[in-house]
Design brief:
The structure is a homodimer.
Chain A lengths: L9 E4 L3 H12 L4 E4 L11 E4 L2 E4 L4 E2 L4 H9 L4 E3 L5 E5 L5 E4 L10 H15 L13 H5 L3 H8 L3 H15 L8 H11 L2 H5 L8 E3 L5 H9 L4 E2 L4 E6 L4 E5 L2 E5 L1 E4 L3 H4 L3 E3 L4 H8 L1 E3 L2 E8 L9 E7 L7 E4 L8 E8 H9 L2 H16 L8 E6 L12 E3 L3 H9 L7 E3 L12 H22 L6
Parallel strand pairs in A: 1-2, 1-14, 2-10, 7-18, 11-15, 14-23
Antiparallel strand pairs in A: 3-4, 5-9, 6-9, 7-8, 11-12, 12-13, 16-22, 17-20, 17-21, 18-19, 19-20
Helix pairs in contact in A: 1-9, 1-15, 2-15, 3-6, 3-7, 11-14
Chain lengths: ~450, ~450
């Protein structure tokens, strides 16, 4: 490992998409930057592993057409994408074992579909009342932030099947249960993504495409472009602000800087000692941001055999099985078959409480019911339980609890604290919780910092 | 400061009531114990300061007749108590400026009193369905933990005035707003206190009596009885478990022990590094426990002049003023007059955002309206903003967010993690959130530890 510099203009804490975007923007403004990453790799909650020639995305993986900042990175760093496999029949399973086929063009004939679609339309209409330029100005902020999504649904949705569909949507998008989510946060997030369909659907929407070399590829290329400025295995223990500088402490030595941008996930940020202490609003916002619970399980086969049966590989389980949703995650050329299973919220907890052998059996049982006995004989089985990740402590993103937006966001969400600025996908308005939001947050923080540096010393930035 | 021992049987982290109770119980079982306290004093969220001859309780202060463990400590350590002043007229103020007198025997004629009393009865009946020996067995756990108190009230209480009264009760008891509180947590807490009246009322209930020398007096006496075993100014940075011992790290050196009992407030606990990492359920429970926001302001006068006007000094403000509730906090002999003002939840945030001069003016304005111009000329004005406290980071207690009881409590609430045990008022069933609950939690944890030590080595405990 190269030695840490003693001095730089800006220290960026965290080398996920937010931290890398911050550093790249600052470099382009001529700012001398150092990136400190706690883990042994860059990418944060995005991690692509090559296993026997096949790329497995253990974390975030998709890119959609309105995620224009991530697409710009894909272009800039030469990381090709390909459309998700969306041919053939998807399958939904209900608690009584009944299955219904559906496709992206043809709705399921399962229960509650029409009620659920009306519900999505209603949520979109409510979300449209939130101005992303000033979400706290929303006239219904107090009403919506005072209740869980569970309570809102209880009061406004009659159809039990539509409720069940929305619960799965909440699990899939926020990796928590409707009881964990403030109604305001749901609507804010929907607004930033451009609507419920944009979050939920595949081709043309958030799950449109994947990266040929994995979703970590742009992060790896971005880190490479920063040369020796990115230091992995360097957890920050303390950030101490003085009158004219800030000192970032690590076990590998301290770095003094004019400004710091903290981009780490909220759980990791809460382990950093700040001096002076962060303002109460910022501490409360962080303490009120609770990570979702999600695991991804990848299974590899010789080929995507389900395609021969006219199946897309997509499955949605409305029953109590540990698996919530399955996608065909095969490589671009279809040379192997890969299924990815997601489990989240209550189902995650049931899943994680099993021992590894039981977990594998539970996953194979579900896949066997839908894709046949061949699905029960994978060549590779690998699982990633994000709550066990040392630095992220969960996934996909931290969710503010009811009341947090109303009570703590005005000063605590992302307002700089002296020489300390904030980025990370949780500080994004557009595509909050996604890689695209992370990049946007880094670009916003970099603009804050360059403005601050220029104000202090006009020659500091180009 | 005396040197830390290198080795002991049990390290107790925190010297609030929970930590002191743990240590005292362990000593009585013949266990060699060391108590490490981060702050420069014992007592935790209980802190009595003598100001110009008058004891000011900046934190918890009352003791009630069913708080039998705290009363036993008062007796044991020779700390006299006296009944709270509850003579004369209390006053409630509404948003339109209307005031209504009331006494402990005579209800206010203000709006919503009867509806509110029915509501208290209903809450008591619901709370009575929770078995404190196994709160998670409650058949309505999922229903109640999926909604905020705000939502439950919205669905079940028609009278706006009764809702307003309950909001003030929530602020007063939990120092947060109804939107912040899970309905299950409210009912669990009510069950552990023996009913809503038990929480809310003065003589015969939770606010029955005060300590002549302040509520910290029993803690100081308890610490003294532990001799040199209590070490203040000793924050714990890490707790590392090995196969046959656990090492507690501090800047003053490390202590090896057979067991550790962590009794610190959740915010302080979250700053400790644990190796191995705590189980996800415990981390999630801590991350889902958010401190309330409360300040206490004490004002001293030559005499309790309001008593001469037939006023008790008790005031309840239903309007938007920063002050929520005022009590007569004069010393036992009435030799001086002291009023204490509480502000919490949204009102706390409004209050804390003012500069100190504005805060004082705001408090004096309210007191002047009820107690006359004399109230605006205090001899002493002192405020304690608990969210700014370095170690507690709020008060009175941490409140689990909606969903936390259901999702994380079974394994995460207080289940020992290897050689690490848990106490603190947040782990109590009876009088959770109170000094009495803190003592009970320490006694429970000490029993766990002595059983574990005896199982490992029969001669380890008496």
């Amino acid at each position: 490992m190269s030695a840490l510099p003693r001095r730089c203009q800006v220290v960026v804490v965290g080398a996920g998409y937010a931290g890398l975007a911050t550093a790249i923007e600052l470099r382009e403004a001529g700012v001398d930057v150092v990136v400190l990453e706690a883990a042994d790799r860059v990418g944060g909650r995005i991690w692509s592993e090559r296993r026997d020639g096949v790329v497995v995305d253990h974390g975030g993986q998709w890119v959609g057409p309105t995620q224009t900042r991530l697409l710009a990175w894909a272009e800039r760093f030469g990381c090709p994408t390909f459309q998700s496999y969306d041919v053939g029949r998807h399958v939904e399973i209900w608690a009584d074992g009944t299955t219904y086929p559906f496709t992206s063009d043809q709705h399921s004939e399962g229960p509650g579909v029409e009620d659920y679609e009306r519900l999505e339309g209603r949520l979109d209409a409510l979300a449209a009342t939130i101005d992303l330029a000033d979400p706290l100005a929303c006239s219904s902020l107090e009403e919506w932030d005072s209740q869980t999504v569970h309570s809102w649904v209880d009061a406004h949705v009659d159809s039990p099947a539509a409720r069940r569909r929305l619960a799965l949507a909440v699990q899939g998008v926020w990796s928590c249960e409707p009881r964990d989510l403030s109604m305001f946060h749901l609507l804010f997030y929907v607004a930033g993504a451009g609507g419920m369909r944009s979050l939920m659907e595949t081709i043309g929407y958030a799950q449109d495409s994947r990266f040929v070399d994995g979703a970590q590829a742009p992060a790896l290329a971005a880190a490479a472009s920063l040369g020796g400025r990115v230091h992995v295995r360097t957890p920050v223990s303390a950030i101490r602000q003085g009158d004219d500088a800030v000192t970032v402490e690590t076990a590998r030595g301290n770095v003094r800087a004019d400004r710091v941008v903290v981009t780490s996930a909220p759980a990791a940020t809460s382990h950093i000692e700040f001096e002076p202490a962060l303002p109460t609003s910022r501490r409360r916002w962080l303490a009120s941001s609770v990570m979702g619970d999600v695991a991804k399980v990848h299974l590899r086969y010789d080929s995507p055999f389900w395609r021969e049966d006219g199946l897309s590989g997509q499955m949605v389980a409305y029953d109590a099985q540990p698996v919530g949703v399955v996608f065909d995650n095969s490589p671009d050329d279809g040379s192997r078959g890969v299924l990815v299973c997601f489990t989240y919220g209550d189902r995650y907890r049931t899943f994680a409480a099993l021992d590894p052998g039981e977990r594998r059996t539970a996953v194979l049982d579900v896949l066997g019911r839908v894709f046949g006995p061949q699905a029960m004989q994978p060549l590779d089985y690998v699982e990633q339980l994000w709550p066990e990740d040392r630095w992220a402590e969960g996934g996909y993103a931290a969710v503010p609890v009811p009341g947090a937006w109303l009570e703590h966001a005005r000063d605590g969400w992302r307002t700089p604290c002296g020489r300390v600025h904030w980025a990370g996908t949780e500080t994004a308005t557009v595509w909050n919780g996604y890689m695209d939001g992370a990049i946007r947050s880094g670009e916003r923080a970099a603009a804050e910092v360059t403005a601050a540096l220029a104000a202090e010393s006009p020659g500091a930035v180009r």
